């Protein structure tokens, strides 16, 4: 979508979404959802809605359009993310048609005979997707060695938090307690073995010392 800003007479600033270089691997679906093609010029836009539903989380779509029930709700969020890739193209197409019909009837977008304006609502949903009205994101691809880098990052974070130092301090305290117990055991054994000096060794016996004190 082009935007013209007048700087001065006969001089305009043209703001455009940017240049997207063509690629031989891009599908019509990829080209459309990147905003390269005008939605108004797309034929049969409803065929691209399954791709939009695949990229966006169910809770975000429910919150944006205030509708529910176009797909079978799983029991948990983890199961929802796990079941997304297992859906067949037929199931996704049926869900997208129910999704468009619910929006059309809620907003009153009906054509002759009371039928839902599927193509008109499909163009509206695609525009909402391209303009950021529907929250969505794509996770970056993982490169080689990403797991090792995450481990190193975790170790650095633990070191900053002092977790490594605490472990080392606990080990040192445990070693100190073991040495203390060992020293106490050695002292008690030494006291039990010591029974005084013998006369033959040049020392004075305890009995002789007691007699001298009485005298």
Describe this protein with a few key phrases:
215 residues, mainly alpha, Conserved Hypothetical Protein Ylqf, Chain: A, domain 2, 2 strands, extended, 9 helices, two-stranded antiparallel sheet
Explain what you see.
This protein is mainly α and 215 residues long. The chain has nine helices and two strands. α2 crosses α5. Helices cover 54% and strands 5% of the residues. The longest helix is centred in the last third of the chain and has 31 residues, at 163-193. The chain has helices at residues 28-33, 49-55, 58-65, 77-83, 89-107, 118-130, 146-161, 163-193, 206-214, and strands at residues 3-8, 11-15. The protein has a two-stranded antiparallel sheet. The chain has a domain at 26-130: Conserved Hypothetical Protein Ylqf, Chain: A, domain 2 (Orthogonal Bundle), CATH 1.10.1580.
What is the topological layout?
Elements: E1 3-8, E2 11-15, H1 28-33, H2 49-55, H3 58-65, H4 77-83, H5 89-107, H6 118-130, H7 146-161, H8 163-193, H9 206-214
Antiparallel strand pairs: 1-2
Helix pairs in contact: 2-5
Distance between the termini: 122 Å
Listing every helix as H and every strand as E from the N terminus to the C terminus, the arrangement reads EEHHHHHHHHH
Structural class: mainly alpha
Unreliable segments of 5+ consecutive residues: none
The count of DSSP E runs of length 2 or more, i.e. the number of strands, is 2
Order of strands in the sheet with most strands: 1-2
User: For the residues shown, what is the average pLDDT?
Assistant: 75
Compute the number of helices: 9
Apparent shape: extended
Radius of gyration over all CA atoms, rounded:
40 Å
The percent range for strand residues is 5-15%
Level-2 CATH architecture of the domain at 26-130 = Orthogonal Bundle
What is the CATH domain class of the domain at 26-130?
Mainly Alpha
* Biggest sheet character: 2 strands, antiparallel
Question: Helicity, in percent?
Answer: 40-55%
The CATH topology of the domain at 26-130 turns out to be Conserved Hypothetical Protein Ylqf, Chain: A, domain 2
